[in-house]
Amino acid sequence: MHIPASDQTFTLTIDGLPVEGASTFDVTNPSTGQILTAAPQCSDEQLDQAVAAARGAFPAWAALPVERRRQYLRTMADTIDTHTEMLADLVVQEQGKPRSIARAEVAGLGYWLRATADIALADTVNQDDEERRSITRHVPLGVVAAITPWNYPLGQASFKLGPALLAGNTVVLKPSAFTPLANLKLGEILRDVLPAGVLNVITGTGGLGSRLTSHPGFNKISFTGSTQTGRTVMASAAATLARVTLELGGNDAAIVLPDVDVKQVAAQLFWAAFANSGQICLATKRLYVHADIYDDLARELAELAAAVTLGDPAQDDSVELGPVSNRRQYQTVLDLLNDCRDQGYTFLCGGLPDPETAGYFIRPTLIDNPPDSARIVREEQFGPVLPLLKYTAITDAIARANSSEYGLGASVWGADTEAAHQVAQQLQAGTVWVNESMHLHPQVPFGGHKQSGIGVESGLAGLLAFTNTQTLTIKHPQPTA
Ligand code: NAD
Known about the structure:
Elements: E1 12-14, E2 17-19, E3 23-29, E4 34-41, H1 44-63, H2 66-81, H3 84-95, H4 99-117, E5 124-128, E6 132-140, E7 143-147, H5 153-166, E8 170-174, H6 181-189, E9 199-201, H7 208-213, E10 220-224, H8 227-237, E11 243-247, E12 252-256, H9 262-274, E13 284-290, H10 291-307, H11 327-342, E14 346-349, E15 365-368, H12 375-378, E16 385-391, H13 394-402, E17 406-407, E18 409-413, H14 417-424, E19 431-434, E20 446-447, E21 449-450, E22 453-454, E23 456-457, H15 459-464, E24 467-475
Parallel strand pairs: 7-8, 7-10, 8-9, 10-11, 12-13, 12-18, 13-16, 15-16, 18-19
Antiparallel strand pairs: 1-2, 3-4, 5-6, 6-24, 11-22, 14-15, 17-21, 20-23
The chain binds nicotinamide-adenine-dinucleotide.
Residues 147-151, 174, 176-177, 209-210, 213, 224-226, 229, 232-233, 247-250, 281, 380, 382, 408, 448, 453 line the site of nicotinamide-adenine-dinucleotide.
């Protein structure tokens, strides 16, 4: 059953209660370009209330045995599972992704919570003898600001909520103002699951994010978004020395070696670049292809691009690609496409959309071997446009792939996996895949090198990032001489 977003009510969650916004802001459906509904705007006072609620809930939550918090995470997952259709439907309407991917996103949230609940957080015994007992343990930080982007509104929350809560912190979650709805409903359905104040969900435009990061009540800012905003977040956190984890932009290179089975690898590479209309931080954004197979692979990719179904996923479940998710990102991608056209680069398929089209649709577009200095090569497109880049010497491909301020992910594709592995080891990125891409797992940390971020999410390392390390030592009474 699909209830249009316009027929639903959306409230902030503060201290376990529904709270109407001080005002509202419009949320747009990217498939139509029309206003979908209004979302609550969190005022400064309501932000203070959310932080106070999280601070108030912190001592009791932190004092719970960790096994009890593990159980809470599993109950959260069970509750989310019972609302899959409702949450997926909101993601489809506000974000524009195909329904099957939206369902997988909701399922992923539950999966991540359950898997995080299973991560062991053990103390280390440093010394235990007649002289002293010394133990290092991991204590919660306090109140966490969780700030997320619009590409996976619930998926991005999943990387933060489980570890933050399991470690004993309380949270104020702020999703992107482009995609507030599913997160507001998440807060609503978890109100009866978690103790009041443990999870607060607030939304708003007009600098709410920067008001969070400069608020003195947070001990940690867990931020996912662009590198540009990440710099601002880090500067803001300097005032209180709040801990930061920054998951930022990427410009992931894929290197295709000449021994691949072109036809087989083409479909994998296509979806590595164009899934979610290219709006994935770890999507392939530059494709380096050996000259021997360049033309064949380009042709296969162009055929796949021509065959893909693009449309409004709320109207048609068989749609494979939706629109670019919001007007701001649409303009960013159009700007890059205009630059490609103005510079005279060759479009193998796709291109600038008909300006009369309603919604922010851009067909998957391949740019034929632009120069390394091209904006479409150097900048993060975060949309359905992919430059194909020809190389002959692998050392050249590696140097060009590494020639970026970003270092989020990368991939290498080849029939000889040992040779591909050798190449992978030379790439500068937080995750490097061989013969696959974008595979993430809750037990495996991921994060960016260079300007793609600071710190990691997921796995034990991601959990530890929500803790302070504390060493306790007990000096035993010593026998008098
Ligand atoms: P963005 O930086 O514009 O916004 C991200 C979040 O920060 C939003 O909630 C936004 O409201 C908030 N925000 C904006 N200005 C702020 C400020 N001054 N202080 C605090 N918060 C602020 O990014 P976006 O357009 O929402 O997302 C796209 C970007 O996110 C891309 O660069 C993409 O690569 C990146 N991203 C990275 C990862 C990762 O894991 N590394 C994952 C997804 C997206």
